[in-house]
Amino acid sequence: MAFSKQIRRQKIKVSIRSAVSGTADIPRMSVFRSNKQIYVQVIDDVAGTTLAAASSKIKEVADLKGNKIEKATKVGETIAKVASEKGISQVVFDRNGFLYHGRIKALAEAARNGGLKF
Q: 45 with 28: CB under 8 angstroms?
């Protein structure tokens, strides 16, 4: 029998996290996508702290009229701006088991255009 979507994503996530870890110099940028929202955090795994965060629930993105990909693009621009204000220029991208497609790809490309390197 085939794996369910959730089990498949968890297996991919474990595989990715075994190779990807964030430090204070190069933190991990973790993305979570639900059916309606998208969330992104810049995490220092050594200290166990979140350095920066953005989501589609913040006011400037929530008020945006458009589809979910456009909102994900705005979240990517926002996280790049917030990270650069905190002095973060390079991150390791953690897609969290999601396919690099659609909203995840739009967020990543917007963050790259905003100045983050990964």
A: yes
- pLDDT tens-digit readout, 64-75: 999 999 999 999
pTM for the full predicted model: 0.91
C-alpha span between 21 and 114 (Å, rounded): 22
For 27-81, the pLDDT digits (tens) are 999 999 999 999 999 999 999 999 999 999 999 999 999 999 999 999 999 999 9
- AA identity, residue 5: K
Q: For residue 12, what are the domain limits?
A: 5-113
Distances (CA, A) of 106 to 10, 27, 41, 69: 22, 20, 16, 6
- Whether 26 is covered by a domain: the verdict is yes
